[in-house]
């Protein structure tokens, strides 16, 4: 509660008053999008790497075949419960949106009406995606089956239900640069792109500050599962002692080196990573070996000791 | 249906066995130990198959068939008493079984049944060739993962 209160005050300070103009959405300029043509076949791989189906399938939809992105899954966060919308190519979904509107939703978190999206939709990672990849992804989305389901409202209490205040949040926490800044091999760079931009692995494996921003100083060092029990594990070299081959095998099959099988939300992630090429899984493993080892729980900045709550 | 029923019966049976408790581990602890050991045996037997599937060991049709047969025995074993009421992760520190499992016994039973089907398929194809083993093992991993997805606390 204390945290929610701090958040309220801060959001009000940033969202209201002085910074109002700063908090307006900033879409990608038309000029950058003109001339892009999406390739739906290539877009399928982007779609798998980005894990859109994990959140936008209907709850409990385990059917085979092309995914029906009807929405309806619920995401519990510290600010309230978000319900994933219908993003299938139908009038109830995004069938009537232009390519530019879709790309701006995915990569800038801006709706066609110019409103901010909540970061429960990980545009905060997709903002680092190549525009060509996004155009391909959008072309692929248009080939998927339509659903007539109506999108459901979020259950987010005041003041977090004020989308405008998200502009302040963006100002504070949106990061369009990659977290890992180092001399990387082309393979590690590809891995960085897959992990930080498309795969949004940090959304679960990185702890958050009280306002819900990812703590880049504790990148991938593990975080409590917001839905309740357990922990999303530390996957920096300080927490994960697996070989690259073992990481690749898990991303492909779910099997850990002990032949346990990962569960929780990681089971869903494996459904996506199992569709990637071997080279891409290898690139993810190479990147995970290259990130700084951070013991968990990482001490909160400025405190010098660990104040992570239990 | 019969299997689903048996899971419910299993929970009831577990309750009945409470009376044998004496010194040493409580019936609840025994239940948790038993099911965790059972799971460990799954993993152990999968290890041999996985080593071949992942190219860390030479494919051998006989070894593969034998390991698949062990796994097949394991999934048939009676799980009476494993899923005793009162042994979820909220009640037992040593358990990672989510309370949701007891709220959805029927679905958990279906997930076990899906594993049985995947293991039957593994047993009938593991000895064919490496590609068949890899394909069938993938199905087993998905069946294990589907249950862990809903009913097991992520590691701590």
Automatic annotation (TrEMBL), chain A:
Domain Cytochrome c, first and last residues per copy: 38-145, 186-292
Location of region: Disordered: 291-310
UniProt keywords, alphabetically: Heme, Iron, Metal-binding
Keyword Zinc-finger: no
Family annotation (Pfam families): Cytochrom_C (PF00034)
An MF annotation (GO) of this entry: electron transfer activity
SUPFAM superfamilies, A to Z: Cytochrome c
Protein's name in the database: C-type cytochrome
Organism: Rubellimicrobium roseum
From TrEMBL, chain B:
Cleavable signal peptide: 1-21
PROSITE patterns xrefs: CYTCII
Key words, A-Z: Electron transport, Heme, Iron, Metal-binding, Signal, Transport
Pfam families associated with the record: Cytochrom_C_2 (PF01322)
Keyword Signal part of the UniProt annotation: yes
Entry-linked SUPFAM superfamilies: Cytochromes
Binding annotation for heme c: 144, 147-148
Any one of the GO CC terms: periplasmic space
Record GO terms (molecular function): electron transfer activity; heme binding; iron ion binding
InterPro entries: Cyt_c/b562, Cyt_c_II, Cyt_c_prime, Cyt_c_prime_subgr
Designated name of the protein: Cytochrome c
Annotated source species: Rubellimicrobium roseum
Organism lineage: Bacteria, Pseudomonadati, Pseudomonadota, Alphaproteobacteria, Rhodobacterales
């Amino acid at each position: 509660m204390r945290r929610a209160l701090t958040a309220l005050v801060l959001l009000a300070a940033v969202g209201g008053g002085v910074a109002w103009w700063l908090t307006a959405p900033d879409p990608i300029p038309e000029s950058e999008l003109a001339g892009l043509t999406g390739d739906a076949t290539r877009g399928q791989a982007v779609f798998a790497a980005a894990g859109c189906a994990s959140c936008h399938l209907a709850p409990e939809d385990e059917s085979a075949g092309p995914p029906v992105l009807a929405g309806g899954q619920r995401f519990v966060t510290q600010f309230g419960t978000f319900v994933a919308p219908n993003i299938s190519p139908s009038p109830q979904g995004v069938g009537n949106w232009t390519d530019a509107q879709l790309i701006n939703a995915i990569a800038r978190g801006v709706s066609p009406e110019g409103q901010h999206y909540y970061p429960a939709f990980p545009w905060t990672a997709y903002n680092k995606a190549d525009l060509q990849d996004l155009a391909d992804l959008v072309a692929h989305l248009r080939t998927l089956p339509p659903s007539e389901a109506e999108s459901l409202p979020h259950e987010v209490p005041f003041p977090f239900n004020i989308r405008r205040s998200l502009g302040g949040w963006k100002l504070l926490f949106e990061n369009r640069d990659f977290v890992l800044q180092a001399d990387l091999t082309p393979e590690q760079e590809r891995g960085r792109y897959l992990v930080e931009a498309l795969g949004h692995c940090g959304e679960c494996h990185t702890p958050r500050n009280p306002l819900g921003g990812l703590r880049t100083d504790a990148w991938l060092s593990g975080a409590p599962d917001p839905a309740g029990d357990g922990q999303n594990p530390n996957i920096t070299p300080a927490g994960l002692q697996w070989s690259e081959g073992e990481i690749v095998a898990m991303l492909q099959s779910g099997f850990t080196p002990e032949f346990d099988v990962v569960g929780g939300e990681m089971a869903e992630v494996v459904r996506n990573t199992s569709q990637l090429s071997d080279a891409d899984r290898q690139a993810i493993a190479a990147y995970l070996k290259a990130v700084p080892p951070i013991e968990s729980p990482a001490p909160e900045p400025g405190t010098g000791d660990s104040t992570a709550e239990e | 249906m019969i299997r689903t029923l048996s899971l419910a019966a299993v929970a009831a049976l577990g309750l009945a066995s409470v009376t044998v408790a004496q010194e040493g581990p409580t019936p609840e602890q025994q239940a948790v130990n038993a099911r965790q050991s059972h799971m460990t045996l799954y993993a152990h037997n999968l290890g041999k198959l996985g080593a071949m599937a992942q190219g860390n060991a030479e494919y051998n049709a006989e070894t593969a068939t034998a390991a698949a047969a062990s796994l097949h025995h394991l999934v048939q074993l009676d799980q009476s008493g494993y899923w005793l009421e009162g042994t979820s992760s909220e009640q037992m520190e040593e358990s990672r079984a989510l309370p949701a499992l007891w709220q959805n016994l029927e679905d958990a039973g279906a997930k076990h049944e899906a594993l049985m089907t995947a293991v039957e398929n593994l047993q009938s194809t593991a000895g064919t060739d490496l590609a068949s083993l890899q394909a069938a093992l993938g199905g087993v991993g998905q069946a294990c993962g589907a249950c862990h997805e809903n009913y097991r606390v992520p590691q701590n």
